[in-house]
Design brief:
Blueprint lengths: L21 E2 L21 H10 L5 E4 L6 E5 L9 H15 L2 E12 L2 E9 L3 E3 L2 E3 L6 H13 L11 E11 L19 E9 L5 E5 L2 E7 H4 L3 H9 L1 H4 L4 E4 L3
Length: 254
């Protein structure tokens, strides 16, 4: 079992060994924490980038080096449930009020050693998840995913608005019952599934600043570590390499 490196708290640090998930060390938002430079936008560039992302038929994904990004911390984001049983019980209560749960999650790509890595949030010492979460009743999927990404990874400052470029949906998972098991299809005998989860590629720009809740860790995990590793990451995350296999990764060096 691979374990993330426990980095010192003096500044952004990454592990040296590249055959295991990278713990993206973060610094506190107080004291000598450096303020990220505000990104200047070239006139017309934002519109051009949006057009590129909206072209869902494109199979090319630009992936920038992990070293391009800055990682800091913000106030803790506490989990609503303390156990899987509590989570399923709360899901059942919400289902009675609002119907099927709809959730969205983001696949954020960076590269190290010319190999794609996925950014995952780690809770405690073992459980990993994609950034995202449950949509509000009637909420648009794209707007809801951007809201969740801001909650989990964005800086709490109007001076540095995030630029989440949500691309196409690459996977849909279904939860037939109030159980942990999910399927990449809805079983034909299930007429009232309890959850529908969609995974979207979110295109990162060349430079970004992430602020991670202090009670969470942010890992950069290589695709080869995720592949077929159901025991460690579960069926949804461990099949991301297959879902991304139809894309061409443009490894941008800078």
């Amino acid at each position: 079992m691979t374990r993330p490196f426990s980095a010192p708290q003096t500044g952004p640090t990454r592990t040296k060994a590249h055959h295991q998930p990278r713990l993206l060390s973060v610094t506190t938002t107080s004291g000598d924490h450096r303020t990220p430079e505000k990104k200047e936008r070239v006139p017309g560039l934002a519109e051009e980038e949006e057009e590129m992302v909206s072209a869902s038929s494109s199979s090319v994904v630009n992936v920038y080096p992990l070293a391009n990004y800055t990682f800091g911390t913000k106030e803790p984001k506490m989990e609503k449930d303390t156990s899987v049983a509590d989570r399923l019980a709360r899901m059942k209560v919400n289902y009675m009020k609002e119907g099927m749960r709809t959730s969205v999650e983001a696949i954020l790509l960076v590269q190290e050693h010319n190999h794609p890595h996925i950014l995952l949030l780690q809770i405690g010492n073992t459980f990993c998840k994609l950034p995202g979460g449950r949509l509000k009743p009637g909420e648009n999927e794209i707007d809801g995913l951007k809201r969740k990404l801001c909650s989990k990874l964005a800086v709490n400052s109007p001076s540095f608005p995030p630029n989440w470029q949500v691309g196409e949906c690459v996977a849909v998972w279904w939860r037939p019952n109030f159980e942990t098991v999910m399927y990449p299809y809805c079983p034909p005998h299930i007429t009232k599934p309890k959850e529908c989860k969609k995974l979207f590629i979110v295109h990162l720009t060349e430079r970004e600043y992430f602020a991670v809740p202090r009670n969470l860790k942010l890992l950069a995990v290589p695709l080869f570590e995720l592949y077929d590793n159901v025991q460690r990451y579960g069926p949804v995350i461990s099949t991301i390499p297959q879902q991304l296999s139809r894309f061409q990764f443009n490894m941008v060096s800078s």
